[in-house]
Amino acid sequence: MARSADFFSFLGLPRKLNLDMADLEQRYRALSRQFHPDYFYNAPAAERRASLEQSSYLNDAYRALKNPVSRIEYLLQVEGVAPKSAADSAKQVPPALLEEVFALNEELDDVRELRAGGAPADQWKARLERARTPIDTKRTEHESQLQQLAAQWDAAVDSGAPDEQRRKILQSLRERFLERNYITNLLAGIERELSQ
Questions:
Q1: Structural domain contains residue 180
Q2: 20 to 30 A from 105, CA-CA: which of 17, 147, 183, 196?
Q3: Helix (H) or strand (E) holding 147
Q4: How high is the pLDDT of residue 86?
Q5: pLDDT of residue 91
Q6: What's the CA gap between 2 and 183, in Å, rounded?
Q7: What's the pTM value of the predicted model, to 2 decimals?
Q8: How far apart, in Å, do the first and last CA atoms of the chain sit?
Q9: Residue 146 falls inside a structural domain
Q10: Spans of the chain, pLDDT less than 50
């Protein structure tokens, strides 16, 4: 099997987002047995090296495809619409989140002032918990939107939809994915504040 194949085709799967996890596991185990370096210990050096590379690639493919979030990220990469880098995607606030980010940053500043002024922990922690609620709601909405877009993508793949239709779905997936990452970072910031 060619290492240059994308993870989906390497595992003999369609380039879809809703995968049968039992099937993925079965394919992974079958290929693991086929490529495992232990079966090549008496083989020439080139075959041993190829076995190691194939086994490593298989592990990378399995890790990427078994998790729904990393599967979306990988699909975006393969389709050429992924963010340039994690740093680039973290720098720009998605327009749909500007208001929430502004309100959260103000609340975090207020909480820091309260904490620095010696306010009781239960007072500022309660404010952080209230600030988390709309962000958690946004995350739930985004998870639902990602699932809907994944279903649209899979239907487009199954029907052989034109490239233009697929690109629209991929662009929407990319936007929701970037927003999801930003939401995750916002929630991580709240968690950091709560742990202080």
A1: yes
A2: 147
A3: helix 121-159
A4: 61
A5: 61
A6: 37
A7: 0.84
A8: 51
A9: yes
A10: 2
Using alpha carbons, select from 90, 91, 92, 124 the residue that is nearest to residue 108.
124
Cα separation, 78 vs 94, whole angstroms: 23
Residues 62 and 122 in one domain: no
- How confident is the model over 19-42, as pLDDT tens digits? 999 999 999 999 998 887 777 877
Which are the contacts of 127, defined by CB distance < 8 A and separation ≥ 6? Answer: 107, 110, 111, 114
Number of structural domains found in the chain:
2
Q: What's the rounded Cα separation, in Å, for the pair 68 and 119?
A: 41
90: amino acid identity, one letter: A
Residues 53, 58: Cα–Cα separation, whole Å: 8
Look at residue 120 and tell me if it is in a domain. Answer: yes
Structure tokens at 17: 């987002």
Which token pair is 58? Answer: 């298989």
Residue type, position 89, single letter: S
Q: For the CA atoms of the chain, what is the radius of gyration? A: 22
